[in-house]
Amino acid sequence: DVVLTQSPATLSVTPGERISLSCRASESVDTYLHWYQQKPNESPRLLIKYASQSISGIPSRFSGSGSGTDFTLSINGVELEDLSIYYCQQGNSLNTFGAGTKLELK
Amino acid sequence: QVQLQQSGAELAKPGSSVKISCKASGYTFTSYDISWIKQTTGQGLEYIGYINTGSGGTYYNEKFKGKATLTVDKSSSTAFMQLSSLTPEDTAVYYCARDVPLMDAWGQGASVTVSS
Predict the structure, then answer these.
(1) S-S: B98 plus which of A46, B16, B79, B105, CB 3.0-4.6 Å?
(2) Exposed, middle or buried by CB within 10 Å (0-12, 13-18, 19+), for B30?
(3) pLDDT, tens digit, for every residue of A46-104?
(4) Residue from the list A50, A55, A96 with its beta carbon closest to the beta carbon of B47
């Protein structure tokens, strides 16, 4: 199975700052890498598809990049409503998820 | 709009089975697979498998073979997951999601608690 390693596990943020979250795959997944946001007591929500493609209704401050084994989710100007857990998921070979990165308030 | 409505919380005894439902609306049900995902309290997401809603064909993560059984009722646009031989390790929230083939819509989750 493809293992996805997300870092950091927890990130303390200040509203307004630009941040980057990492997702590294144990083997190439091309661009079959998607990002999800999960707020407390809610279902996950698709944020970015195929590494860098935007999703309708998702704020433009969210962006993704990468291919192969290294991927990044960026938030340009973190807002309080972004305090959530972020998961990456690969669909290149038998779907797997990363362990998540939790954004918390500094 | 696309909606997936899951059945309610379940309290089950060890060794028993439960069957969770996921009713789809807002799109042509048989056009997309339905995937199932497990989330234990405070833990991440674990992929269980998917069902092709048109053919009924299934794929299971090796870990869940023998534990989960996926079925579908096309007449009611509903997917089901049965969990058998329950143990406390099966206590979790279970999500269904439309798989297009990424998971672009999720149900609200069904809580399963296994306790004697």
Answers:
(1) B105
(2) middle
(3) 999 999 999 999 999 999 999 999 999 999 999 999 999 999 999 998 899 999 999 99
(4) A96
pLDDT at position B43: 73
Interface check B3 vs A, CB under 8 A: no
pLDDT at A94: 85
Task: Look at strands A4-7 and A85-90 and give their pairing.
Answer: unpaired
Q: Which of residues 54-113 of B touch A (CB under 8 A)?
A: 61, 95, 101-104, 106-109
Residue-wise pLDDT tens digits, A22-56: 999 999 999 999 999 999 999 999 999 999 999 99
Alpha-carbon gap, residue B7 to B82, rounded angstroms: 12
Residue A47 to residue A62: CA distance in whole angstroms? 8
* Residues in chain B with pLDDT values less than 50: none
Is the minimum CB–CB distance between B9 and chain A shorter than 8 Å?
no
CA distance A69 to A25: 5
Pairing mode of beta strands B18-25, B3-6: antiparallel
Residue of B nearest to A90 (CA): B102
Name the token pair of B38.
């497990």
Q: Which residues pair with A90 in a beta bridge?
A: A33, A96
Token pair of B52 as six digits: 């092709």
Chain A nearest CA to B69, separation (Å): 18
Beta strands in A27-92 (DSSP E): 33-38, 45-49, 53-54, 62-67, 70-76, 85-90
